[in-house]
Amino acid sequence: MTPYSKDFPVSWEELHRNARALSWRLLEQGPWKGIIAITRGGLVPAAILCREMDIRLIDTICVVSYEDGEKGEGATKQGELNILKGVEGDGEGFILIDDLVDTGRTAQKVREMLPKAHFATIYAKPAGKPLVDTFVTEVSQDTWIRFPWDMEYTFSTPLVNRQDT
Ligand SMILES: O=P(O)(O)OC[C@H]1O[C@H](OP(=O)(O)OP(=O)(O)O)[C@H](O)[C@@H]1O
Ligand SMILES: Nc1nc2[nH]cnc2c(=O)[nH]1
Ligand SMILES: [Mg+2]
């Protein structure tokens, strides 16, 4: 059964506003050598952060998370995180950015690889929150966040006509 019972859609405007708020907080903690985006969710936040903070050195750590039962090239064990591309060094002076932390599984893995990087996210859920250095908005563990790049405008059924509410 899914652990998510609440839906939290995020608009481009809201995402942009939150990413700018994160930039303010990170600027105060600089200077920074560069940004490392955790793909793919960290890519849009990274673009906004580096524009606001005038950072030109942008790298990626490319992660694929396979669900149980799913198989992929390079997957050694089911349910495992696969690193398609890492980053040299220990991350000192770099911001490591992702869109959110949920269970903390991704965060734990990348923090092991880059222990001195400053880990930042826009959203954090309670289970992953202790692994984040700076975040903007906390949501409950049973909330599923929907990012604007995963959505499209479509007809919305009036509440009174919905069977499931
Ligand atoms: O704390 P966790 O439980 O690890 O979940 C958080 C991760 O899940 C999502 O990425 P996802 O693996 O869905 O891939 P994507 O970024 O390529 O969309 C999100 O972008 C985080 O990286
Ligand atoms: N889009 C999205 N991806 C996730 N991966 C783990 N948790 C989430 C979530 O709440 N939203
Ligand atoms: Mg991700």
Layout of SSEs?
Blueprint: E1 6-9, H1 12-27, E2 34-39, H2 43-53, E3 58-65, E4 81-85, E5 94-101, H3 105-113, E6 118-124, E7 134-138, E8 143-146
Parallel strand pairs: 1-8, 2-3, 2-5, 5-6, 6-7
Antiparallel strand pairs: 3-4
The structure holds 1-O-pyrophosphono-5-O-phosphono-alpha-D-ribofuranose, guanine (GUN) and magnesium ion.
Treating each run of at least 4 consecutive H or I residues as one helix, how many helices? Answer: 3
| Beta-strand content bin | 25-35%
Largest sheet: 6 strands, mixed
- Poorly predicted regions: 74-78
User: What oligomeric state do these chains adopt?
Assistant: single chain
Count of strand segments: 8
Mean pLDDT: 93
**Major sheet strand order:** 4-3-2-5-6-7
Radius of gyration: 17 Å
Estimated helix fraction = 10-25%
Order of helices and strands: EHEHEEEHEEE
- Tell me the distance between the termini: 19 Å
Shape: globular
Bound molecules: 1-O-pyrophosphono-5-O-phosphono-alpha-D-ribofuranose, guanine, magnesium ion
Structural category is alpha/beta
